[in-house]
Amino acid sequence: MSKSKAIVYIRLKEGVLDPQGKTIAHAMSNMGYTEFESVRSGRFFELECETRPDLEKRIDEISRKLLSNPIIETYRVEMV
Amino acid sequence: MSKSKAIVYIRLKEGVLDPQGKTIAHAMSNMGYTEFESVRSGRFFELECETRPDLEKRIDEISRKLLSNPIIETYRVEMV
Description:
- Two copies of one chain form a homodimer.
- The first copy, chain A, is built from two helices and three strands; from the N terminus they run βαβαβ.
- The first copy, chain A, has helices at about 20-30, 55-65, and strands at about 5-10, 35-50, 75-80.
- Chain A has a three-stranded antiparallel β-sheet.
- The two termini of chain A are about 15 Å apart.
- Chains A and B meet through strand 1, helix 1, strand 2 and helix 2 of A and strand 1, helix 1, strand 2 and helix 2 of B.
- Strand 2 of chain A pairs antiparallel with strand 2 (about 35-50) of chain B.
């Protein structure tokens, strides 16, 4: 059976506070890397799966239902 | 002053266990998405910064020293 690979990138919506990013930006500044003005954190998931005709639809479903929190996050799927 | 944007992607090295990915793969399977054979998790950071000649070198430094754990993770920098 043929295999597919997808990456789902998840990031906070604009305007949603990102304490982890803020903390990292402060740490950078304290270490002398003062040119960094903002840091936003995100996460991604690399999925290996069996190819099927409705795969992209199903990755979309799983991204919405399981991988992300649609209230505060957006996601983007990349087939690789 | 001119601005730059970079994204640092961090993922576990091959062979390093990923309990979060494993847990998500199990959850997908339990939800009927049985075509997903493996899930690997990663994270990324979007950096906004003032442009400077040695910026790429400095992003590389900060990726190694602060953003990633070079023992178990690899990183990739994308200038956007």
